[in-house]
Fold this sequence. Notes:
Layout: H1 5-17, H2 21-28, H3 32-45, H4 60-63, H5 71-76, E1 88-93, H6 99-116, E2 120-122, E3 136-137, E4 146-148, H7 149-157, E5 165-172, E6 175-177, E7 187-190, E8 193-197, H8 208-229, H9 248-253, H10 260-270, H11 274-287, H12 291-305
Parallel strand pairs: 1-2, 1-5, 4-6, 5-8
Antiparallel strand pairs: 3-4, 7-8
Amino acid sequence: xxxxxxxxxxxxxxxxxxxxxxxxxxxxxxxxxxxxxxxxxxxxxxxxxxxxxxxxxxxxxxxxxxxxxxxxxxxxxxxxxxxxxxxxxxxxxxxxxxxxxxxxxxxxxxxxxxxxxxxxxxxxxxxxxxxxxxxxxxxxxxxxxxxxxxxxxxxxxxxxxxxxxxxxxxxxxxxxxxxxxxxxxxxxxxxxxxxxxxxxxxxxxxxxxxxxxxxxxxxxxxxxxxxxxxxxxxxxxxxxxxxxxxxxxxxxxxxxxxxxxxxxxxxxxxxxxxxxxxxxxxxxxxxxxxxxxxxxxxxxxxxxxxx
Length: 307
């Protein structure tokens, strides 16, 4: 289960800036004709996307009521976006990894660069060292060893973030939990920092199908947590990779791509070439054996480039 730490922090921020909304709009919001360009592109890809299905028992939305966020809301009310001084996504491996896991880290870094249209770089592995007693529970012997996500974000990842980072995400093989009252999380984001785990995704050394499933799960959580680092909350109106997730079955039912509203947030925040981005994502997915995502992104590229 996932704790809504990022949303709680964001809600306080939104309350603080409500009085100054007019000033914020004058500083950060694009001119209407510029936003209209994004909205027109959203309409073009809209028919390719599915509305959110009713949640099944135990799904995220069956447990947590969330309002979602439109593209206009994102533009109006605060976000973390790349700047000339801070435009790089950094991936920080935490601890040791097998050769197969190590290659997957490189591929995930490549995907994040394509998905968000900014430089993405891998940092040298960071040793975990001795974990404080209050940031660790369970044991390796019982296969229930977990590390506290906020500890990794604040004490391990934050001190190693380069000055030109607008987002930094750590990756560990340990299972994660976010704090009291929760069993586990696939990943966790706080501001421009995040962490996610390889622990629950299956067998990376299995047959070709198992490997592809493992890779897709890793990619899904990586793009989701990076979306949170842009201040994109959970999506509720569409089947979208920014949907909340309460377990591996729900993760598998969700697509790797974002919905029109969440896509437009990336287009606007990261200033990507939309058609070119979709084609590069389709090529990447094809190389990784993710045929459904490859076909979807190929259709998206065609819609936007055949106007």
